[in-house]
Amino acid sequence: MKLFNSLTLLAVAVLSTGCTVTSSEPVKTGEPLNVMSGALATPLKVATWNIEHLAFPIDSGCKARTPEQIKALQNYAENLDADIIALQEVASKEALQQVFADTQWQLIVSPRADSPSYTCRGTGAESTQQKVAFAVKKSVPVLAVNAFDELGLEKIGLRFGLQITVNTAAGATDLLNVHMKSGCFVDDYLKSDKPACKTYAQQVPVLNNWIEKHESAAQPYLILGDFNHRLSAPYNRATQMLLNDERSATNTTAHLLGCQARYPAPIDHIIVGGMDTQRIADSAVVHPFKNMQRDAMLSDHCAVSVTLNLDNAALSSAVKWQTTSKEYQALTAHMYQQAEASVVALDTHIQQSANWVAVMDVDETILDNSAYQKHSELTQSGYTPKTWQAWVKSENATLVPGAKSFIETVFKHGGKIALITNRDKQLDENTWNNLKAVGLAINNQNTCLIGRSQADKSAVNNKQFINDKDLRRQQVTQGNADCFTPNNAQNSWQQPQSILFQVGDNIEDFSGVTQENANVDTLLPKIGKSLFLLPNPMYGSW
């Protein structure tokens, strides 16, 4: 009965607007709704992404792009693995088609009239339009489309909102895509005299009224987009107005960190109401680019996503702690600071030697795979060799806090890095590409990457080789390590190396140690000096 009432209310609202929005398959709001029987029970992944001045032709506007950059945008969009993507700063449907093929996607662009162009800062180029848009997989029926022009305040240049309706497990659900006024980065817009804040102060009540109508009608909804405001702060005036305790509305992405230094507190958010928001919040993910160097970023915002319709799935405390707690960040960064201090404290004659190395694990030591762990728990698929291999091949892991600075310190003081990982050796190229993509200055001279082979497992004899990394450690010290060599390049690893430091997240990342035989009292004097152990509650040899 609740679904019927919601659809009835929606139909009345739709029929009263009579608005048509540009789409690859136009959806006219005055026509009968194509309502699916029942609500969608399968997981539905929803993302928001400010794609930064996506123009057509590609070499126009404030962010001219090359064909190679367009291809990178396509790959990034595909890797989001989302069913619905709310986009901001889209010039036109033609611009959108460069990234999203309309054979696979329904493309819906705000009908806002074009506003006057301006001169782009830095480039002097003429600007293109900044509109909001949706890309919706063709497998997801769009029940209705409405322009939300109230957000434009009848002012030239302000962006409209854009609303679509789709089925979720909660019934017919409205998704509102917004791109709020920029330039008001304060916690209380009413206390600022900036023109941007005066505009923001007018837009927030408009959003508030939209939420109130949905709350009153018990209509499930999402508001997602670029809020140009730090809504993660509970004392923020907009947060307090939109997300008061009497509502079901929750900012499901509030706990996420911004993906770049410019936005340490995120301004891209997904607000959800009328659903089980705790499980949705657990699914929230930031999607960094493969190269997060500021000049190399595909756009100045990373996408964020949540997954709806998660059937009783919940994150374990271990994954929550690793992905959201400040304790994890502090402990990891502190351990790496200790490691750096130990490198700096080396005698000068050792630093100047060409043959000393720090042996490091990769997963949860350098590369953060918590996104894989979250996905496997929320989809209740668990770990499998097949899904793990697919994750490694995606090359989407991010950096563990402190790892990059430590590696740079080793290189600066004359050392090398030996990466001894239990990823399959056949995946070394993917691992290498991922390490390069996160900005590590590795090459075949300063870094030796060695994945695990059957020989490493077979070598364990509880005498010479205690764990399955001991053989590779010996090969490094003897100068016969089978390092991954991109493009079969020459390397300098065919000579003996001295292992001075070992870094990992597992006790077995240390030489001659297993979980069963480890003597903690023996290890303790070395931890923080030559052995560095990082926290990882998600998985291990325990």
Descriptive overview:
This protein is of the alpha/beta class and 542 residues long. The chain is 29% helix and 21% strand. Helix 7 packs across helix 8 and helix 8 packs parallel to helix 12. The protein starts with a helix and ends in a 9-residue tail after the last strand. Mean pLDDT is 88; it is low at 1-39.
Report a brief summary of the structure.
This protein is an alpha/beta fold.
Which word captures the global form?
A: elongated
The quaternary structure here is single chain
What is the radius of gyration computed over CA atoms, rounded to a whole number of angstroms? 26 Å
Span between N and C termini?
50 Å
How are the SSEs ordered, and which strands pair?
Blueprint: H1 2-17, E1 20-23, E2 27-28, E3 44-54, H2 67-80, E4 84-90, H3 93-97, E5 105-109, E6 131-137, E7 144-148, E8 161-168, E9 171-179, H4 195-216, E10 221-226, H5 237-242, E11 250-251, E12 268-273, H6 277-282, E13 285-287, E14 303-308, H7 317-324, H8 326-344, H9 348-351, E15 356-360, E16 367-368, H10 370-378, H11 385-394, E17 398-399, H12 403-412, E18 416-424, H13 428-437, E19 447-452, H14 454-458, H15 470-478, E20 498-504, H16 520-523, E21 531-533
Parallel strand pairs: 3-4, 9-10, 15-18, 15-20, 18-19, 20-21
Antiparallel strand pairs: 1-2, 1-5, 3-14, 4-6, 5-6, 7-8, 8-9, 10-12, 11-12, 13-14, 16-17
